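Regression test attached.
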Amino acid sequence: MSNPAGMPQSEPERPRGESGVSRWEDAVLAAALMSVDPVGTGGVALRSLAGPVRDQWLTIMRDLQPPGTPMRRIPLHVSDGRLLGGLDLAATLSAGRPVAERGLLVEADGGIVELAMAERIAAGTAARLTMAFDSGEVVLERDGLAMRSPARFAVVALDEGVGDDEGLLNALLDRLAFHQDLTHIRVHEAVACDYDADEILAARALLPGIQVSEDQIEALCSTALALGIPSLRASIFAARAACAAAALEGRTEVTEEDLAVAGRLVLAPRATMLPPSEQPPDEPPPPEPEEPDQEQDKGEDQQEPKELEDQVLEAAKAAIPADLLAQLQLGKLRRSRARATGKAGAVQNAPLRGRPAGVLRGEPRAGLRLNVVETLRAAAPWQRLRREEVARFGGQSNRIEIRQDDFRITRFKHRSETTTIFVVDASGSSALHRLAEAKGAVELLLADCYVRRDRVALVAFRGQFAEVLLPPTRSLVRAKRSLASLPGGGGTPLASGIDLGMMLADSVKRRGGTPILIIMTDGRANVARDGTGGRARANEDALSAARLVRSVEITSLVIDTSPRPQQQGRDLAVEMGARYLPLPHADATSLSHAVRAAG
Amino acid sequence: MPIPFPFSAVVAQEEMKRSLLIAAIDPSIGGVLVFGDRGTGKSTAIRGLAALLPKMRAVDCVYNCDPEAGEDALCAECRTKRAKGPLKSRMVPVPVVDLPLGATEDRVIGALDLERALTKGEKAFEPGLLARAHRGFLYIDEVNLLEDHLVDSLLDVAASGENLVEREGLSIRHPARFVLVGSGNPEEGELRPQLQDRFGLSVEVRTPQDLPTRMKVVRLRDEFERDPPAFVQRWKRQDGKVRSQIQKARDFLPTVDVPDATLEQAGRLCIKLGTDGLRGELTLIRAARAFAALKGDAEVKDAHLVQVAASALRHRLRRDPLDESGSTSRVERAVGELFGE
């Protein structure tokens, strides 16, 4: 069978993971568990490009829903009115009294919401969704209407993100029990489903009677801790998922098997670390995770739950993909795929540029554009009242009465939010204090980013390769956390650093932002693109990477950090089409000034 | 309306619970901002608090006017009525009003009553959320995502204590004093400094990292989801205790003494931290007094200051991006130096 478009060609994936269950089976199981307990599990984050595998999963998921289950698909740029509800103008006018229109979330009550292109959803839209999630209702305060309507649903978030910097918002990801990745599943694997809607209904009937015991809660909680999962929702979801798994198998009690399913499907995808004393998973007995907090609670009667916990931990570990396992064991923190978008208000209210982002009450002045349709909409309900008013003063009116209060202007989302990407040399030659300065500059820029309303990202290169230390963010808190521990020392893979900075810049551009690339280096590359040593090759690669930056016309700045400014740095800037700035004694403040000038 | 999780069943998060109680005891403190990790029970605690607030005495008018209030804190209708004789009042629940994201301006500040305009052709004012929140709580979840134009109206009203509506040919002024409670996750964006400043207390919440606490959270949550009414029933007595604690503290509050020595210490702490303006100092004292009242102590002591210092001051420190430690540890450090902790 040929590989479908959009599916990666490379990486011959083993069909079965360490757990002996294929990824496809797990993905289908997640669909079934979500169907058994939609509200309790929140739903599934499905990472995959559009294609036959995803279509097959969606078909199966839909078929699992008992007849009559509402299914709603939410497009990316859904308006508040459609999402939450509002005034149904046509019905209001014909009925002569306010008629409310139900929003998508209310329509989906008791069913499933599919979120299209969920990786690009605006933070505001996501927040409206999560609010309904948390409270089980939509609180509507719009267009002269106030209502509360139940809205209990599960979400299938279709995440088409590519690469680490694109993904679901953390706020959303945290509220979905299951995180499934279909990326490496091939079409011929994606066929079977062992469940049907009748089984789901039977399981739903069993579910209320199923309880999780104290030992089992302990096993799930301590596994979550051992895997470095910060959010408590994960443990709560794991308990719900274990119950759903039991119900699906027709059991009235949660067994070890169900806990293993919860570990695999709920906890494993959230892991940020492995227990310190790691041994190959197949070697019994598995080691105890060293959790300082647990030590004091361990009595002699704790023997059994300990074993239980190990089993959950094993199940979870087995489900963590091998490449991730390797990364975790290297001691590197897995960065969350979620981007940090800014607050909704931080969207620049650029009067005339960007894409429309709703309407605001206001007057059309100073180049603001009147939204005629929305203005008429706003005026419509008041026509009877106004005509009567006009009549009272002896007038006669047949035209539409528009008042100043009706004026609506279109609000635009600023297209060019600036993202400043720092690419910092963290190699031995550049030493640690460079990093400290870059760190300081990033924080200074972030500190007043409310005024500037832009974002900052940080790439560091050292040893053999470059890595994104901080994906584009506006959050000072997040930045501080990521910057807390910066490694330094090793070779100077300048080309890789520029390449990675470029890739980030490119993804910023693709989302309609404006990237600025700041390269901080002494220019002395000694590691080539492929990770091998050698100054000549390394330098050549760096220059060719630089030319690429110039060819795509990204605003850039080369900050030469060597004690005495070098020709190499200058050459790099020329090839890059960048401004060149020798800053041998750069401190955070002068650096941030320089960057501002560049932007 | 969904059943809220009982306030007394919220595990750990002592600072958050304490701050909410303080705001309930002394509304003049200026509300609480709860910022922090996801899934730490921010909204849960706030909604839980709403369910157990003691009732208040109010006139039967749209704005829940206080029958004892001065002239300027009454709505126009009540002012006219009182001129003719004492106002009739009754006990009502304290309003806790949600300001949901996606709310439109007309619903927040009030506008022409659409229904009456359509059906009767009448021009009448329909009060908004700010009116409904008068004398109660206004809760904004994800407050850092609130649209700018709504934040603007909010700031204005929170500062003046009254809402002025000039639209659609209406000119209305009504009292709107409320305790602002906001929650959010800083990872989703910073809060506008002006708005942050409006909050009396600010709390940082983190996910508990010890196993017993985490297990307790999971177990209680699971029990609640299974059968909310039964769960609420089981916690009714504890919630009742908290309710009477609030009531007692409110009654006790006016008699709590703030000695000069404590005032001086509070001043020293604020100078040491370089907090802007006097608002920090005032909030610190008020919060310490409300906390003393909660504890049943007749006099505000250093110990009370120490307990509330971080909540009252951390969001008022000038941001120093180069200081590695967060504002919380800066407050703690200053407290330690001053009080020898």
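Expected vs. actual: identical. Chain A touches chain B through 87 residues (CB under 8 Å).
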